[in-house]
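To the wet lab folks,

You asked to see what we're planning to order before we commit. Fair enough. Below is the target structure as tokens, and below that is the sequence we designed to fit it. If anything looks off to you, flag it before the synthesis order goes out.
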């Protein structure tokens, strides 16, 4: 589930029937945040459909079971007015992928789960300007991730095997040191960044019942503007 750009509605997907080719299909719905009214946006011949502007649908398409030898995942974009599709990104070697969109629709973050390890990638909405922002060492898995509203940071949770908990980190897309957010909790997942860029909703799913949390100030404070010298 994701916020729309104007923060007036939520976008959620549900599983639809498989196509004749055996490809999974999912429907994307818009839920009005005030009234709860629901309307169908589109059906994607793939999984995890997402859209921030209602005109372009992004989703993942897998080669399985049509091509079981090369069952990699491909990031696709579909124009909702015309139905035309285009390929955005295909990982090599192939592997499972998941994605998140920035609230302004300008950048896409992708978590590539392939042998021998995982890596977090960020690219433009057209698939250009591809950057690797994080690759965990020592087999530490990434559980979930989100892209900041302006596309400048990726926030993700990764395990601390020694402590037995999960840690929250942020990685700058443009390069620089990782920043650890002072929070540890069991299995932090289901991330959703609010379009205002200030709040992150997530769930801790090891407890029973699961807990839903809202975290503020997940991004570093903006640097104060330097004053021009007095002449």
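Sequence we intend to order:
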């Amino acid at each position: 589930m994701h916020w729309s750009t104007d923060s007036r509605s939520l976008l959620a997907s549900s599983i639809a029937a498989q196509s004749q080719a055996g490809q999974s299909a999912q429907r994307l719905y818009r839920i009005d945040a005030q009234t709860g009214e629901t309307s169908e946006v589109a059906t994607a011949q793939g999984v995890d459909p997402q859209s921030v502007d209602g005109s372009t649908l992004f989703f993942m398409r897998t080669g399985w079971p049509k091509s079981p030898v090369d069952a990699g995942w491909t990031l696709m974009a579909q124009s909702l007015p015309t139905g035309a599709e285009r390929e955005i990104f295909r990982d090599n070697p192939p592997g499972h992928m998941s994605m998140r969109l920035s609230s302004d629709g300008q950048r896409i973050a992708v978590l590539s789960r392939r042998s021998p390890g995982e890596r977090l990638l960020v690219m433009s909405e057209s698939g250009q300007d591809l950057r690797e922002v994080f690759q965990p060492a020592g087999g530490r898995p990434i559980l979930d991730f989100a892209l900041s509203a302006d596309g400048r940071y990726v926030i993700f949770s990764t395990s601390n095997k020694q402590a037995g908990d999960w840690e929250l980190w942020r990685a700058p897309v443009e390069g620089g040191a990782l920043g650890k957010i002072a929070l540890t909790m069991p299995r932090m997942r289901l991330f959703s960044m609010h379009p205002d860029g200030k709040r992150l909703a997530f769930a801790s799913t090891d407890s029973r019942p699961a807990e839903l949390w809202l975290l503020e100030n997940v991004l570093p404070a903006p640097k104060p503007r330097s004053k021009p010298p007095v002449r």
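Structural context that might help your review: The chain has a mean pLDDT of 78. The radius of gyration is 19 Å.

Thanks,
Computational group
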